[in-house]
Write a structure and sequence with these properties.
Dihydrodipicolinate Reductase, domain 2, nine-stranded mixed beta sheet, six-stranded parallel beta sheet, 10 helices, 17 strands, binds alpha-L-sorbopyranose
Length: about 375
């Protein structure tokens, strides 16, 4: 019989919605060993209206304005941290010490030192843990990795990632508050590096192995914005844009670009690898497609006939594609919310003896390390070894 898993959600914003939906939906699509129960959600006293609305819409049994009380509750099995970044460390450490399983939204921490403390806490407590890098479980991204692992790209030469948005171009966009804390360094840690490039770094290292060295440049295009919390114009200290070069341990070289000033780009995350035998390209604005250039067969080394070479656009909706067998019929698509559902399904399965679910906090700490090195490189204007 399926066991229940009582959820305490530490947040009630955008990411709390994506995670709540995953708990609500997962057992509809996957035969998971646990049935999540949305027990309690947390929000600040001053956000009570939003918290109540959130509770009602997602069906939580109760609300709480002191997150520590949720962690103290004996009936809560899993604590899900979807608060602004500056709270992640304290919440994760407290949850681990109380013996709770923990899921934490990315970026896991404000900096590497915090990430190390979090890893130490979950490992000492021996609790199951996960950082929600949801884009690994886009079926086309999982297929990207599968094709690389099958040797179809061969020796990799180049890795190229971008993660671009355009929502901060206007000077009128403020910083702070419940919606725009990502623009406030004290709350978010960093700008596009932690918020967006962390995704690109996580998938890059997952697919192409560890990054060895980086050199970066960051830019702040609008130097001050009104802070919603203080009502004052305040300097912007997060990176609005970041570009970095990377050397991978496997000898390939990479470029990473991210900005919130790419007019026209809403959530454009792309990745491409170019190897000796083939190349693969993915972009999140067309998430159901994967593009594959097949040059030579990995086993025989035989080149594909000249008149058949070219980019293939694979519609990743067949039952044999990652995760797709759990949804509808070939040719029908899934969306953003399903990447969280897929991740949660793997996590729940891992709790009952299934394969280890990555990235754990230990694994995700690598991404934090690269992010920190990127920021430091931009400050110092030099290469940094990871
Ligand atoms: C920022 O706008 C954001 O919501 C990120 O924080 C998420 O991680 C990304 O998936 C979508 O964009």
């Amino acid at each position: 019989m399926t066991k229940t898993l009582n959820v305490g959600m530490l947040g009630c914003g955008f990411m709390a919605r994506t995670h709540s939906n995953a708990y609500a939906q997962v057992a509809h699509f996957f035969e998971v060993p646990y049935q999540p129960v949305l027990k309690v959600c947390y929000g600040r006293e001053q956000d009570m209206d939003a918290l109540k609305k959130f509770q009602k819409m997602w069906g939580y049994e109760s609300v709480e304005t002191d997150w520590k009380k949720i962690i103290e509750r004996r009936d809560i099995d899993i604590v899900d941290v979807v608060s602004p970044n500056f709270l992640h460390k304290e919440m994760v450490v407290a949850a681990a010490e109380a013996g709770k399983k923990v899921i934490c939204e990315k970026p896991m921490a404000m900096n590497l030192q915090e990430a190390e403390e979090m890893v130490a806490a979950v490992e000492k407590a021996g609790v199951a843990n996960l950082v929600m890098f949801n884009y690994r479980r886009v079926p086309a991204v999982s297929l990207f990795k599968q094709i690389v692992d099958e040797g179809r790209v061969g020796r990799p030469f180049h890795y190229r990632a971008t993660y671009n948005q355009d929502y901060t171009i206007s000077q009128k966009v403020p910083q702070g508050g419940a919606a725009l804390w990502r623009l406030n360094a004290k709350v978010a840690g960093s700008g596009v590096t932690g918020d967006l490039l962390a995704h690109s770094i996580d998938t890059a290292e997952w697919i192409n192995g560890p990054i060895k060295r980086v050199v970066a440049h960051t830019e702040i295009f609008i130097k001050e914005r009104k802070n919603i919390d203080t009502g004052q114009m305040e300097p912007i200290t997060i990176d609005d844009a970041c570009m970095f070069l990377a050397l991978f341990e496997n000898g390939s070289i990479g470029t990473f670009e991210s900005t919130r000033y790419a007019r026209g780009r809403k959530n454009y995350s792309s990745m491409e690898i170019n190897g000796e035998n083939g190349a693969i390209f993915f972009n999140l604005e067309e998430p159901e497609y994967l593009q594959f250039f097949r040059y030579a067969d990995p086993d025989s080394g035989k080149k594909v006939e000249d008149h058949l070479t070219g980019w293939q656009k694979i519609l990743v909706t067949n039952g044999e594609h990652p995760y797709m067998g759990k949804y509808w019929v070939p040719g029908t698509t899934i969306g953003y919310e399903h990447y969280f559902i897929n991740t949660l399904a793997d996590f729940l399965t891992s709790l009952d003896g299934g394969p280890k679910c990555e990235p754990t906090m230990q694994t995700a700490m690598r991404t934090q390390k690269v992010c920190d090195a990127v920021i430091r490189s931009a400050e110092e204007g030099s290469w940094i070894d990871i």
